[in-house]
């Protein structure tokens, strides 16, 4: 499936792209005038310079990169971040430093990845009871017990 998604890039960074033919996400980069230093447990909103127009029925998810998480302890605080189809503002990424050392984020660093997905909206049908199932209300480690 090939979809045309409109994008404005107000950055010197290249447009996001799929690194391999099987990639789910495209890495997105920080668009910074000066580097950001993140202290342990500090969070910050990082601009990307990207503005997108999704088709109705789609969303973009902003997800962490595993390499950044394991090497630097940096992740997205609100993962997965939701970019609504009707959002026209700049895509920004909420990063948090979960390591014990300060971490540097520089212009052009690949700070997260963006996955475009289909989404459905529902309408509620309010009822008195829900259907019975084998699980019913069991959860939170309910299965496998003797
Ligand atoms: O990581 C993110 C998450 C959100 N957004 C933008 C796009 C999204 O469409 C909008 C609103 O996001 P969300 O619904 O998560 O935030 P909210 O706190 O519910 O704000 P709002 O009341 O504006 O929906 O903010 C980003 O740029 N990056
Ligand atoms: Mg919201």
TrEMBL record:
Involved pathway(s): Pyrimidine metabolism; dUMP biosynthesis; dUMP from dCTP (dUTP route): step 2/2
EC numbers: 3.6.1.23
Residues holding substrate: 65-67, 78, 82-84
InterPro entries: dUTPase, dUTPase-like, dUTPase-like_sf, dUTPase_trimeric
Tree of life domain: Bacteria
Transmembrane segments: none
Keyword Nucleotide-binding found: no
Alphabetically ordered keywords of this record: Hydrolase, Magnesium, Metal-binding, Nucleotide metabolism
Molecular function GO labels: dUTP diphosphatase activity
Residue ranges of domain dUTPase-like in the record: 14-144
Broadest EC class assigned to this enzyme: hydrolase
Catalytic activity: dUTP + H2O = dUMP + diphosphate + H(+)
Pfam families, per database record: dUTPase (PF00692)
Cofactor(s) this protein cannot do without: Mg(2+)
Entry keyword Magnesium: yes
Protein role: This enzyme is involved in nucleotide metabolism: it produces dUMP, the immediate precursor of thymidine nucleotides and it decreases the intracellular concentration of dUTP so that uracil cannot be incorporated into DNA.
Protein family according to the UniProt entry: Belongs to the dUTPase family.
Protein name per UniProt: Deoxyuridine 5'-triphosphate nucleotidohydrolase
Lineage, broadest ranks: Bacteria, Pseudomonadati, Bacteroidota, Chitinophagia, Chitinophagales
